[in-house]
Design goal:
1 helix; 751 residues; disordered N terminus; single chain; mainly beta
């Protein structure tokens, strides 16, 4: 029988805090300030943005439009809540905001109220087209979704099939004919003409509550794109643009019938935004193209929405010649009010993964006109990003006292940062701790620390620090894209800021350069507790190599012990990107391993199991339910000296998350339906209670602790299978038990 328990998602076991011995969880804690210059960032620990798609929705039903960013980088939702403090409007990052949305969204997501019920619905990618979820939430239930269709259908002139939209494209969801229901514009399968799929809800039922579509025209606007560039041909009269506002009788070839226009080369990759820019009663169109940096405005020359009026002009420098939207490749456009003035602004962001901006990638054009007659004026190219730590793609946090002031500084490495003309680079950004030992504060002081971008170490250069020569200062090893490592010796001396000379290859005890498969992710850590720093190296393929330091305190010599220490393998396929981080609590060693899939693997049972072939115990492959899209990395330290460890998490979108171990954590308490093998009886109870097993055996039963609602451990002991709870106060407690090597967490009520 399944029971619902409040499970404490454990942090490691036990940790001696400054208050009491507590069983800890991690809670998202974004309260350490971060500055750039004199500006304190509003959402420093919000994780970053790479290739965002922007929509608004009232996710918490408070009457305010919140901002949802669907980032194409890892198909992940980022939620920014619209908050008001002292009459000032702003966005506040919502940690794990993706929990409010369906989990199977890919490539694109947009929120549109198709049924006019005042709640925006979700349109995302379905195989070969569009998947639709209806918003059925309310203030009592919260945000809820009902799948309406896995694949939206349309009538292609008497033949019902999926309304085709390429996975790379973004269609326009808009009321094209101004009749009150939502129509769709999308590029034809040939990729050079825009199809108009008219919603028949108003025509059939007189209310806009349905998604019944007909292909109304295969060449809406009577224009076509050049197959080899982004030039547009206006006033086309050849097939399929020769007809008026009815569909061409020939079906598209992707539906299985010959069509003359299928001889045209597919022009793959376009983004559309439909809006009436000049308030003349017909829709104009803004286009983005997969191979070009600009956006193009097409002005509709019609006067009534029910005719297929042609586009009469094109502007490749929209919104203005003085400052057009421009980025490396494939811009997409979004029309939303993002500055809280009631007027919908223009947001332009890249729609192509890995080949466009990933750091300053959100262009904001403020609407200084009206919604009926907009006038877009450029403001910035880092909207929201300027308020976050955001350094491209795949951030990697490392703490080190860079300036020898006794405070740990924050170094942020990355997988890749965009550089103009696609010369991608890996860099280190240095945030100096300008706070105190108990109140840290990080300030960006160097955007290319050590000049890493010019050293030619490849992408995802990964640093680790440690004293390898016994002179009391921190030396540096960097893992390279090709799987090798380089060492920089610190010549500064004790008490001086880090100072590195030229690099040398890191060799093993035979003098052979150490090399793993690729993307070496090193850590210097005394793994075998002999007082010497060993070398651990994560691999792209998901394993971890262990080189023991067999030298001395003044001369590190690395000897290979295992190419797969602990039999750790975080990937069933070649893309593992193992990011190991060993750390120690109360002389017990623990291991977090970040991974390509964005989750966090937690291993224990490490001490005494370092021989090649030994196995660590995988406690969780999704610790604290961490999901960061792709490329999770971590660093653990008590940065504010309060006795509770901090967890710095790097990830795909280029920013960081910050957690703190907290016995009162609401995040660490999560409700799960699980099958427990143990039962407390009686429960509720007030004297002796027994620990019974549903499986008939309680072999190796251990009581790790009993905790009250404040996380305080109670002085109770296990006697056989019984526990005397008579001295407990009335209330709710949780037992942490182990049976047959399995950790169990059970709620108990003392009456």
């Amino acid at each position: 029988m399944k029971k619902t328990f409040l499970i404490l998602i454990t942090f490691l076991g036990f940790y001696n805090s400054i208050l009491s011995q507590t069983y800890l969880g991690f809670e998202y804690n974004p309260n350490i300030p971060v500055k750039v210059g004199s500006t304190t960032l509003q959402n420093p620990w919000a994780g970053g943005i790479n290739y965002g798609q922007f929509s608004t929705i009232d996710y918490n039903f408070d009457g305010l439009d919140d901002l949802v960013i669907f980032d194409r980088s890892g198909d992940e939702f980022v939620l920014m809540e619209h908050v008001i403090n002292a009459s000032v409007h702003s966005y506040k990052y919502v940690y794990k905001g993706f929990d409010y949305f369906p989990t199977d969204c890919k490539y694109r997501s947009a929120f549109v109220d198709y049924d006019s019920d005042g709640k925006k619905d979700l349109f995302t990618y379905g195989i070969g087209g569009i998947k639709v979820y209806r918003n059925i939430g309310n203030a009592s239930l919260g945000l809820q979704w009902q799948l309406i269709t896995d694949i939206l259908q349309t009538d292609y002139v008497g033949n019902i099939s999926n309304l085709y939209v390429s996975a790379s494209d973004i269609p326009a969801y808009s009321d094209i004919d101004f009749d009150g229901d939502m129509d769709i514009l999308t590029f034809h399968i040939g990729g050079q003409n825009v199809e108009y799929h008219q919603n028949q809800s108003m025509e059939l039922y007189g209310i806009p509550d349905s998604l019944i579509f007909e292909l109304k025209n295969q060449c809406w606007g009577k224009f076509s794109e050049d197959a080899s560039n982004n030039d547009l041909f206006l006033n086309q009269t050849a097939y399929p643009c020769e007809n008026g506002d009815i569909a061409n009788p020939l079906r598209p070839a992707h539906l299985g019938k010959d069509s003359v226009n299928e001889s045209v080369t597919r022009h793959s990759g376009s983004t559309l935004l439909a809006m009436d820019v000049n308030n003349n009663g017909v829709m104009d169109l803004i286009l983005g193209d997969v191979a070009y940096p600009n956006i193009t405005l097409l002005v509709n020359g019609g006067t009534a929405p029910n005719t297929n009026s042609p586009m009469i002009s094109q502007d490749h420098n929209y919104p203005s010649v003085a400052h057009p939207a421009y980025m490396q490749l494939f811009p997409a456009m979004y029309w939303e009010d993002v500055d809280f003035d009631g007027k919908k602004d223009l947001i332009v962001a890249p729609n192509a993964r890995t080949v466009s901006e990933n750091q300053n990638s959100v262009q904001f054009f403020k609407n200084t006109g009206t919604n009926a007659l907009p006038n877009f004026v450029y403001q910035e190219n880092n909207f929201l990003q300027k308020d976050m730590i955001d350094h491209g793609l795949g951030s990697i946090p490392v703490l080190v006292d860079e300036n020898a002031d006794g405070l740990k500084d924050l170094l942020v490495a990355n997988f890749v940062r965009y550089k103009a003309t696609l010369n991608l680079e890996s860099v280190f950004q240095l945030y100096r701790n300008t706070g105190t030992a108990t109140n840290p504060e990080f300030t960006l002081v160097n955007n290319d620390y050590l000049g890493l971008s010019s050293l030619g170490l490849g992408l995802r250069a990964t640093p680790t620090f440690g004293d390898l020569d016994g002179d009391g200062d921190q030396d540096l090893i960097i893992g390279k894209e090709n799987g090798t490592l380089v060492r920089f010796t610190n010549t500064a001396g004790v008490g001086n800021p880090l100072n590195f000379g030229t690099s040398v290859s890191v060799n093993d005890h035979t003098g052979t350069p150490i090399q793993v498969v690729s993307y070496a992710f090193p850590q210097l850590f005394d793994l075998n507790k002999d007082g010497l720093l060993d070398l651990i190296v994560g691999k792209k393929t998901g394993e971890i190599a262990y080189y023991q330091n067999t030298g001395t305190g003044s001369n590190a010599i690395f000897t290979l012990i295992s190419q797969n220490v602990g039999q750790v393998d975080i990937s069933p396929n070649p893309d593992g990107y193992a990011a190991p981080h060993f750390f120690r609590v109360n002389d017990t060693t623990h291991l977090f391993v970040g991974a390509y899939n964005g989750e966090l693997n937690y291993y224990k049972n490490i001490d005494g199991h370092l021989t090649d072939g030994d196995t660590f115990s995988l406690y969780s492959n999704s610790f604290i339910d961490l999901e960061v899209g792709l490329y999770s990395t971590v660093f653990v330290d008590d940065i504010n000296g309060n006795g509770f460890l901090n967890l710095f998490v790097g990830q795909d979108l280029g920013g960081l998350f910050l957690f703190e171990a907290d016995p009162l954590s609401s995040v660490s308490l999560k409700e799960f339906d699980i099958e427990s093998s143990l039962v407390l009886s009686p429960n509720p109870g007030n004297q002796l209670i027994r620990i019974l097993s549903k499986e008939g055996t309680t072999a190796d039963l251990k009581l790790h602790g009993v905790y009250n609602g404040l996380g305080q451990k109670q002085d109770l002991e296990l006697s056989g299978i019984t526990v005397d709870v008579s001295n407990l106060s009335i209330g709710t407690y949780y037992f942490v038990l182990e049976s047959n090597g399995k950790i169990e967490h059970l709620n108990f009520i003392k009456n």
